[in-house]
Amino acid sequence: xxxxxxxxxxxxxxxxxxxxxxxxxxxxxxxxxxxxxxxxxxxxxxxxxxxxxxxxxxxxxxxxxxxxxxxxxxxxxxxxxxxxxxxxxxxxxxxxxxxxxxxxxxxxxxxxxxxxxxxxxxxxxxxxxxxxxxxxxxxxxxxxxxxxx
Length: 149
Fold this sequence. Notes:
Layout: H1 2-19, E1 24-31, E2 37-46, E3 49-58, E4 64-71, E5 74-82, E6 88-95, E7 98-99, E8 101-106, E9 112-119, E10 122-123, E11 125-130, E12 136-143, E13 146-147
């Protein structure tokens, strides 16, 4: 008789857990031989389907090398690259897997090297180039991948 009551309790509990497991978040980590992370994928599981939302790569010294977000399997949002010492090297913007919007590269010192603009993976808009003293030395204008000025 007691076993009957245990099943009446366990069966709904298992069903409840199974129904609520279709949106589990988890990190998948690949490490270097020294134990430091090499790659971390931030995932979401919906049933048996694994959806990667964000990816981070690391240098062997443990510092972040790059990171980007995904939407429907495509880069979407910011992608950032870092120098080995941790300063930002490059920031890019993606929409549905294509470069869109502002892209900025920095010197090791943190000063801006160039500012660019993209539309659907093509140079589009104003690009500015700076020397290592922070002085603007070149400006270009693009339209759908073609240099116009």
